Structure formats: structure tokens, C-alpha cells
Amino acid sequence: MKNNLLTISIKYILISFSIILLLLGYTFSSCTAKFSKAETNTYFAKITSDNIYFYSQPSLTESSKLFILPKTYFVKILNKENEQFYYAQYQDLFGYVKIEEVAVMNGIPSNPYASFDFRVFLPEGLGLYSLPSVTIENKILDIPYLYDNIAYYGEIIGEQAIPDKSNTWYYCKYQQDGSYYGYVYSVFCDKVETIKDNDQIFDIIDNPIFQKDNSTASGLSDVAMAFIIIGVSIPCLIVFYLLIKPSWMKDKVLGEKPKIVKKRHGDYFEFDDNELN
After folding, report:
1. How would you class 183 by CB atoms within 10 Å of its CB: exposed for 0-12, middle for 13-18, buried for 19 or more?
2. Structural contact between residues 121 and 145, judged by C-beta atoms closer than 8 angstroms
3. Of the four, 49, 166, 224, 260, which is 20 to 30 A from 270 by CA?
4. pTM for the full model?
5. Sign of torsion over alpha carbons 228, 230, 234, 236
6. How much is the pLDDT for 277?
């Protein structure tokens, strides 16, 4: 009777311990998810001025300027690179914008980018260049005549390839057996849409919060979090294993019961004659 009560008590203790561990694990995971979500907010920054550049590197050199971002549209802000630049995304491009030149806003625009396709119409094909210049060393390839699926990103002032004509070049993407990015001379492009202003505006965020060093708000790295979660989960599994193996558990805790050897009772007894004296 006493052994049965002890076994039942141990079982309830293990069940309680298991529930506590599960609750602790759930609470920890919930808090971690909450902090992570808070640190990985999506921000969009509006282009509120003219001549705001999208950079290939966090540098103010002329070579790092990719193109001028269309005014009134947005870039997605991914992180703060340093005190001067945000790491940002525009359409499918990743680059940098100057912190002081954009306004980070609390909202997600429905049409953040000025995206459209245009066509080239030079009969011998129009060159795609790595820089806004017709220098042969910068030529990537020729875009075929009347090809009309060229993705527009923005424009930049470059070489005036034809005297008394425009010095505007388009930064674009040409897709044919791969994706190629570069500049085309705007004089030989048509079907270029007039970019209408994006009137969407949200409240400005003065101090956006970004995730740093791949850590959560608690200061723990993803690896440390994984070890903690595993450390909480393993005891739960052990407890559950003990619960489904009660006989094994009882033998270990209470010790094995001594085996009872039943003596066989005969039908009669044999006496020694000396015992009768």
C-alpha cells in the first residue's frame, strides 16, 4: 500500500514538473518571437527631394551612384549601415541611400516603386553599358531592335553620346538567357511612361529600430536561443519517457521486489525417531 502511494506521488510530481517545463518553454518562445518581431519591422522611406541617388556602395563617390530615385516614391529600408547610409531595397535591387535624404515612414505603400517596361528602337541594336558612356570597355551586350521588355529603375546624367541631344541614361534590366543590369542611352528608347507622383504619405519615424548583429532584443544570438530551447525540451522528453515506462521507473526508484519462493506443502511429515523421545 505504501509503495503504491509513493509511486502515485512520484508520478504526479513528474507530471507537474513536465507541465512547468512546457509552460516555461512556451513563454520563452513567445517572448523571443515578440522581441524578434519588434526588431525586424519593415520600413519604407519616401523620396521627398530631387536628385536622390541609389548607391551600389555606402560611399559618396561618383562610381557608387547607380541612378536617381524617382521623386515621391519609396525605398524599403532594411538596416542602418552606418551613421550616413541605410541599407535599402528598390524593386529587386539592393543598395544604399543617404539617411538625411529620405524620410522613414510608419506605413506600407501600396505602390512603392515607379516600375514599368520600355522599348529600344535602334536598328542595329542598342548597347547596354556598365557606366553611362559609350566607351567600348563598358559595353555588356547589345539589346535587339524593338525589344520592349526592359525594366526601368531610374535615370542618371552621363555622356552626351550624340551632340546636341540628351545626356540622360536609363538604368535598367534586360532579361534574355539571364538578367543583365546596366545603362542604355535614352535617345533611342521609347514607350517610356510618364512617372506620376505617388501621393501616399505616412507619419514620419524619427528613430527606426533595426535588428543588430543577428540578435534578439534580449541580447541572445540565434545559436544561444537554439541551445536554450533544446535544453528546455530534452528534460520534457525524458519526463514523458518515464511516464510511459512506469514499471521501469518504479524498479529504479523503489528497488526490485524480492522474489517470493513458495514452499511446497507435502501431504505428510517425516519425523526422526529421536525427536519423539
Report:
1. buried
2. yes
3. 260
4. 0.65
5. positive
6. 53
